[in-house]
Every structure is written in structure tokens, then in C-alpha cells.
Design a protein that fits this description.
Number of strands: 8
Number of helices: 10
Structural class: alpha/beta
CATH superfamily: Aldolase class I
Strand order of the largest sheet: 1-2-3-4-5-6-7-8
Largest sheet: 8 strands, parallel, barrel
Helix content: 40-55%
Number of domains: 1
CATH topology: TIM Barrel
Distance between the termini: 26 Å
Radius of gyration: 18 Å
Strand content: 5-15%
């Protein structure tokens, strides 16, 4: 069942849980996520980030995502993650996405606000919802660092007072906040400030807060984030890693000179990602 971002976040607010938002830059990951959500009977957000365009074009995978959402047995929002340009956001809306994120977090405040307002106007024409970001989690949604092995020091924590002005002036439906998480593989234990989440919620009239950089955070901290008011958790890197590890393990079991069939490798990846997503979804829904 295809729903908007605003509708699925209302479900999360009513249940006092967070909905998992998983990137689907392949049919394999899309199937894994849909099967996990349906088996657990939980709402889910499937999303595609602009930086995944080199892996598979939005014009190809986007239509498939919308079709799967319509056919799913659970509420599904099809969301554009980290849209960096307004024309790309429009492309997603034209395909039928029911949520878009404009990411102007690295821009000056006024420019971020101006472009976010334009995104809200664009989305209103199709009934879609809008997520925006204040602060910075560092790194890109691809999960790739700079290869240095050093802790990412580009994070900027969200200012709750500024968030209040931004929400009021932009008309968005959800706000991605920086409170200590990082995109990609964690190099050190994250230091999360849940007061940022609570204060943003308090000052913005309980605006749904989005947690980016969710992969690698411990279960206890996920629970604390949800209890503080996080209603959408982005999760990709460790799901993707689980699929890659399963492929490597499978190939390692083959005998010398035994052929490697791509279809078999894909199935191993899909099974592993499905189980990884199920565990994440249960954690976000406070089911374990």
C-alpha cells in the first residue's frame, strides 16, 4: 500500500516507534526489504539516494519501487533520500515518489531554507511530503569515507532554536537532525546527544525527527533515540555490508574450479539483507 511520508510518520507517532528507511539501489535490496516488512507486518520506507545514481538510474529503479509499494501488504512510502538538486527532486516526484528529501545541510542557512521552500512547493503539487536537514552527519549516503581511517570531524549538531525557525518558515513534514551519528562505517563509538532530539521536538511542536547514519548504532541507543522522538531511521551501510559478506562466504564454500553463478550469489545476498533488515526493523519498533 503506497502512502506518503507524512502518513507513515503519523503511524510511527501513534505507535511511538520509528519506521525503518532502507535504500534500495538494486532489485535485490528492494525484494529483501519488502519481504522483511511484510513478514513482520510493519510499515516501511524504501528510498533511493541521489548519490546512488551511478549504481542504477533513478529512472529505472524508481518506477519499480513505486510498483512494489502499491502491491505491498503493509504501508510503504517511496522516498527520495539526500536529493541534492531541485530538478532531481522533480524527477522523483514525476515518477510517483510520495516523499522527497532536500539536503541543503552543507549550504548557508538562508540558501538551504530557500531551496527547501521550493521543494515544499514542488511536492505540494503531487501530494508528496518533504524532509529536510539541519546540521551535518558528514560523509555521503553511499557509506564511503575518505579512506583515511580517521574519525569524521565534519559533523555539526542541530541547533533546536534554529530548527524551530526552519520548520516554521519552510513548511516541511520531517526534519533530519544531527545528534552524533555518521554516515557509513563507524570508526569509533558514536557519542549521541538525545537532548538535541528532545529539544528539537519540544521547540517544533513534535515535528518527526529523522535519524541518519543509523547503521552501526547499538540497540540500546536506538531505543533511546526512538523514546526521545525519532520517528524515521535511515539504515543502509550495514545492510549492504551483510549482503556483501554473505556473497564472500558463499564463494568461500565452493570447491576449487567450481563455477560461481551470479544468480546464486544474488540469492545469498538477498537472504542476508532480509535478515539484517528484519533485526533493524524490530529494534526500531521496540520489538526487542
Amino acid at each position: 500500500m503506497l502512502v506518503t511520508l507524512k502518513e507513515i510518520l503519523a503511524i510511527a507517532e501513534e505507535r511511538q516507534i520509528a519506521v525503518g528507511a532502507f535504500n534500495t539501489p538494486s532489485l535485490t535490496s528492494l525484494l529483501a526489504i519488502r519481504e522483511a516488512a511484510e513478514e513482520l507486518s510493519l510499515p516501511v520506507i524504501i528510498q533511493f539516494a541521489q548519490c546512488h545514481e551511478p549504481w542504477i538510474p533513478l529512472s529505472v529503479i524508481g518506477k519499480i519501487m513505486v510498483d512494489h509499494a502499491k502491491e505491498a501488504k503493509v504501508p510503504v512510502c517511496v522516498h527520495l533520500d539526500h536529493g541534492e538538486t531541485l530538478p532531481y527532486l522533480q524527477q522523483a516526484l514525476d515518477i510517483g515518489f510520495t516523499g522527497i528529501m532536500y539536503d541543503g545541510s552543507t549550504l548557508p542557512y538562508e540558501e538551504n531554507l530557500e531551496n527547501t521552500r521550493k521543494a515544499v512547493e514542488m511536492a505540494a503539487k503531487t501530494g508528496a511530503s518533504v524532509e529536510a536537514e539541519l546540521g551535518s552527519m558528514g560523509k555521503r549516503e553511499s557509506g564511503a569515507g575518505d579512506g583515511s581511517g580517521q574519525e569524521d570531524d565534519t559533523k555539526i549538531y542541530t541547533d533546536p532554536a534554529q530548527a524551530k525557525r526552519f520548520v516554521e518558515d519552510s513548511g516541511i513534514d520531517a526534519l533530519a537532525c544531527s545528534f552524533g551519528t555518521t554516515h557509513g562505517i563507524y570508526l569509533t563509538q558514536p557519542k549521541l546527544d538525545f537532548d538535541v532530539v528532545r529539544n528539537v521536538r519540544s521547540k517544533t511542536g513534535n515535528m518527526p525527527v529523522v535519524m541518519h547514519g543509523g547503521s552501526g548504532v547499538g540497540k540500546e541507543d536506538f531505543h533511546k533515540a526512538v523514546q526521545a522522538g525519532v520517528r524515521k531511521i535511515n539504515y543502509f551501510t550495514y545492510m549492504d555490508k551483510s549482503g556483501g559478506s554473505a556473497c564472500a562466504d558463499y564463494i568461500g564454500t565452493l570447491q576449487k574450479n567450481e563455477p560461481v553463478f551470479f544468480s546464486s550469489v544474488i540469492m545469498e545476498a538477498q537472504k542476508a539483507m532480509k535478515e539484517n533488515v528484519k533485526e533493524a526493523m524490530k529494534t526500531f519498533a521496540l520489538m526487542d
